[in-house]
Structure formats: C-alpha cells, structure tokens
Design goal:
Strand order of the largest sheet: 1-2-3-4-5-6-7-10-12-13-14-15-16-17
CATH architecture: Beta Barrel
Number of helices: 3
Shape: globular
Helix content: under 10%
CATH superfamily: monomeric porin ompg
C-alpha cells in the first residue's frame, strides 16, 4: 500500500511536470528550441548552453539545463540536436533528440520550412535530495519511468525575410511510459502545440524591433499566451520585455561578448501564485557561433540561379 501511495504521488508529479514541455524565455533568440523547422536557418555551426532556475528560493522548484547544437548543411537543409535535464523536487527527466529541417522555396520572397525531431526520454529519481527511513524501498531503488520515444513536427512560413509564422507539435506521438512501481499504471505524454508570429521591423541601419506572439496549447489545458517586444542594436546588443499568461513579466538583455560568443540573460517575476513569493525565475544562455561567415540573407542565394540560366541559354 505504501508503494502504491508513493507511486501515485510520483505519477501525479510527472503529470504536472513542467507542463511536460519545459518553458524557456530564450526562444525569441533561437526558435529552434521549440521548433525543429528552425534548425540550420543560419550559416555555420551554432551551440547554445542554457540554464533556467524557476522560483528561486522555493525548495524543490523546477530547473532546466539544456545543450543545443545546429548546423546548416546547405541553403536548403539543416541538422541539430538537443540534450536536456529537467528537474522538479526529487524527480528528474532526461531528454535527447536529433532534428532535421528542409526549406522549400516558393519564390524569392516566400519560403516554407519543414522540420522533424525524434528522441528519447527517461525519468529518474535524484536520491541525493531524498531523506527516507528506508532507502532500500522499491520506490527509491527503481526508476519511476521506463525509457520512451517521441517526436516533434514543425513548420514555418517566412515572407520577405521579415514575417515569420511557425507551428510546432511537441510530443507528437502521445506515447505512454509504464511505471515500474505501480502495475498497469501509465504516464501519458500529452500532445502540445506551439504557434508563434514574429515580424522584424527595420527602424534604421542599426536598430531592429521584433515583436513576437506565442500561443501554447496542451490537451485539456488552458492556452498560454506570451507577448514579446525585443530590440537589437547593430547585432551586438539586444534586450526586451515580455508578458506570459498568469501575470508573469519577463525582462531580457544580451550582448556579443567576443567575435563568436554571446551572452543573454532573462528575469521573470510574477504578481500572483507561487512565483510572487519567490526571488523570481532566472535564465542564462551562452551562444557560440563556430565557422562564422558574413551575414548574407538566405533569400539572396537563390537569386543567382536565374542569372546562371540566362548565361546557359546564351550559348
């Protein structure tokens, strides 16, 4: 009975676990975090290391660490991979996945990208954070979740380099993982959807203003809306403000530290709920751009093709 009771607690914890799909305030600066169709949209190899500590000062609060890498193979294809550790209280979840994207050019102003990622998820207990009378209990000596496989599908539409519309479907397969400690119990990976819109406004030669709206959905859950307004200066300094449903406010700022390395920091605070009684949520991202090439918009590459065809027909 004790094992059954503890098993149910763990099952409930996982069901509410970080809304199953971890939240990040950094995706406005790298949408490949949430959409595999965005992988490899820029030249070179990019690596990001992110750590997010939610509700600082609250015991057992969620925190997430993830490492992301992506590379543009050519003007049409990109690949990437993510490794993340998501933790709340004594329960942690490890995710690893690989991503692929393909660009379909409609014309010089319109393009569509498709993306797919697939990977594994494993749930474990962090015994170093547990105090119990009997550390040999089956609940503590067996992993709460067996390894399971899942996938994410993504799609983006870009117009004239400025308008970007994306949709991502995390946990697409809705797979079920068996609990080792409770017979016939299942942990369902609930299907999610993320829809976002952004538009790049060129204020002058150095300033850009980029508003972004994100709508998150999960089965049988209320939608969550995020609104951002970010500014970039000369591609060396950036910052902005945002708001998420449930009275969460977000501030972010970043800069190019050296030629290939940048740093971005975000702070979230809430005026209600658990977050209002903590020191807020803190998130930091280090970005490394390897093999950095001069910034040439992707859409300029295909424009050379008509010239080549004209040359070939002139012979």
């Amino acid at each position: 009975m004790k094992n059954l009771f503890l098993g149910i607690i763990i099952l409930i914890s996982f069901s509410a676990f970080s809304q199953q799909v971890p939240i990040s305030a950094m995706y406005p600066y790298n949408t490949s975090f949430i959409n595999p169709a965005e992988v490899g949209t820029k030249k070179g190899t990019r690596v990001q290391l992110v750590h997010r500590q939610q509700w600082l000062g609250f015991a057992g609060s969620p925190n997430t660490t993830f490492l992301s890498a992506q590379r543009q193979l050519n003007s049409k294809m990109g690949i990437g991979g993510n490794l993340s550790l998501d933790k709340i209280a004594f329960i942690q979840r490890i995710n690893a996945n690989a991503s692929y994207s393909y660009k379909l050019l409609i014309n010089n102003k319109n393009k569509i990208r498709f993306g797919l990622s697939a990977g594994i998820m494993k749930g474990t207990l962090d015994l170093t954070t547990i105090q119990a009378d009997d550390m040999s209990d089956i609940v503590l000596t067996s992993a709460p979740l067996k390894m399971t496989v899942d996938a994410t599908f993504g799609l983006t539409y870009t117009f004239d380099r400025n308008l970007n519309i994306g949709i991502a479907l995390p946990q697409l397969l809705g797979t079920k993982a068996s609990l080792d400690i409770v017979d016939a119990s299942k942990y369902n990976l609930v299907r999610h959807s993320n829809v976002y819109f952004s538009y790049k406004i060129k204020v002058d030669e150095q300033f850009e203003f980029i508003p972004l709206i994100m709508i998150r959905n999960a089965q049988k859950k209320n939608s969550q809306v995020e609104v951002f307004g970010n500014i970039k200066y000369d591609n060396k300094f950036w910052g902005g403000i945002g708001h998420r449903s449930n009275s969460v406010f977000i501030l972010n700022m970043g800069m190019q530290v050296i030629d290939k390395l940048s740093l971005t920091y975000a702070f979230e605070f809430s005026s209600s709920g658990v977050g209002s009684n903590t020191s807020g949520t803190h998130e930091i991202m280090l970005s490394l751009n390897l093999n950095k090439a001069p910034e040439i918009p992707e859409e300029e590459i295909p424009e050379e093709e008509p010239t080549e065809r004209k040359t070939s027909t002139s012979f």
